[in-house]
Design a protein that fits this description.
Elements: H1 17-44, H2 50-76, H3 87-90, H4 94-124, H5 131-163
Helix pairs in contact: 1-2, 2-4, 4-5
Keywords: Membrane, Transmembrane, Transmembrane helix
InterPro entries: Rhodopsin_dom_fungi (IPR049326), SAT4-like (IPR052337)
Pfam families: Fung_rhodopsin (PF20684)
Length: about 170
């Protein structure tokens, strides 16, 4: 929170947390309903597969991230300027920890969402044998490898940066 601008006018800066909260809740609840409908329908047909487990895992992580965002807005001043926050929040490590956990959950939820698509396409083309399908399957596997490598490395980097730096215990002096 270094480099903060002092509020010399005395007027409070506009609160923008309601935008984050509104979009988070609207899209989070919508996604939760769609994923729940998909998984329940496929389970009722006894056709639940690994793509369903991946998307359910992604939804669980995304929902947890949504809760963290809502907590940050309602309890820790996300959406407000730093100079409008009380010193107890500015020096607290909890908002930074929630932000860090949110980054990890976001990366993992995107990873599992994309893996779900990989498994859907893999299963979709499993019964067909032609040259174009073999090429498509190869491209699907290459893409899955790239996705796993990228999001796995990004998640490990976020964990490593947090555990091996002074950012883990950052306090405003």
């Amino acid at each position: 929170m270094s480099g903060a601008v002092d509020n010399t006018s005395g007027a409070a800066a506009p609160f923008r947390g309601n935008i984050l909260l509104g979009t988070t809740l609207a899209f989070g609840i919508s996604a939760f309903l769609v994923v729940t409908l998909r998984v329940v329908f496929r389970a009722s047909r006894r056709k639940i597969g690994i793509s369903d487990y991946c998307i359910a895992s992604a939804m669980l992580m995304s929902f947890t991230h949504m809760v963290f965002d809502a907590l940050c807005v309602t309890k820790f001043g996300y959406g407000r300027h730093e100079f409008d926050l009380p010193a107890s929040i500015r020096t607290s490590g909890t908002p930074l920890m929630l932000f860090w956990l949110g980054q990890i959950l976001f990366k993992l939820s995107i990873l599992f969402t994309k893996l779900s698509l990989f498994f859907i396409y893999r299963d979709l083309f499993a019964q067909v044998d032609s040259t174009i399908i073999r090429i498509t399957n190869a491209a699907n596997y290459v893409t899955a490898f790239i996705v796993i490598s990228y999001y796995g490395a990004a998640t490990l980097l976020i964990v490593d940066i947090h555990t091996n730096s002074s950012a883990a215990s950052y306090k405003t002096p």
